[in-house]
Design brief:
Elements (H helix, E strand, L loop, with lengths): L5 E11 L7 E4 L2 H7 L5 H9 L5 E2 L3 E9 L6 H5 L18 H11 L2 H15 L19
Antiparallel strand pairs: 1-2, 1-4, 3-4
Length: 145
């Protein structure tokens, strides 16, 4: 069975043996590598890499072609489990919905800081750009916690 996650697209991976600060480079094709490093001959490398898919290697470098993986690999655990988003649905008749009671119940279950944050967000949405809230219109009321 062929690996469906592999494509016929390949890159050239170059492992430098004498460069610990940058041990490898990836090129989109062999020509770009040879243009970047003219001491390596394109025809020689291409001939070497095409025979049996064996990487070219000398004392300073190892050059090989690698297939690009475009999809997740299939594992035994990923075959059985699929990602799904479970819908959260509450089906009721329209006259029984009573959304206001559910909203109040939800917000009273939230911490005080989250409630204040939500109110502040709603108020800022109604303000124009660079406008501030008119605090003279605000009535302060003590909260019963």
């Amino acid at each position: 069975m062929p690996d469906v996650y592999l494509t016929n697209k390949r890159v050239v991976v170059v492992y430098w043996k004498d460069r610990p600060e940058q041990p490898f480079e990836v090129f989109s094709n062999l020509k770009n590598f040879c243009l970047s490093y003219p001491q390596y001959n394109y025809n020689t490398l291409n001939n070497y890499l095409s025979k049996g898919k064996v990487p070219f290697e000398n004392k300073e470098v190892r050059v090989e072609r690698k297939n690009i993986i475009t999809q997740p690999k299939k594992t035994l655990s990923s075959v059985d489990t699929k990602r799904r988003i479970a819908p959260v649905v509450r089906k009721v008749a329209m006259h029984e919905a009573n959304e206001a009671a559910h909203d109040v119940e939800y917000w009273f279950k939230q911490p005080f800081s989250k409630r204040i944050e939500a109110v502040t967000f709603i108020v800022t949405q109604s303000l124009r750009k660079n406008a501030r809230i008119d605090k003279t219109a605000v009535r302060r009321k003590a909260l019963k916690l």
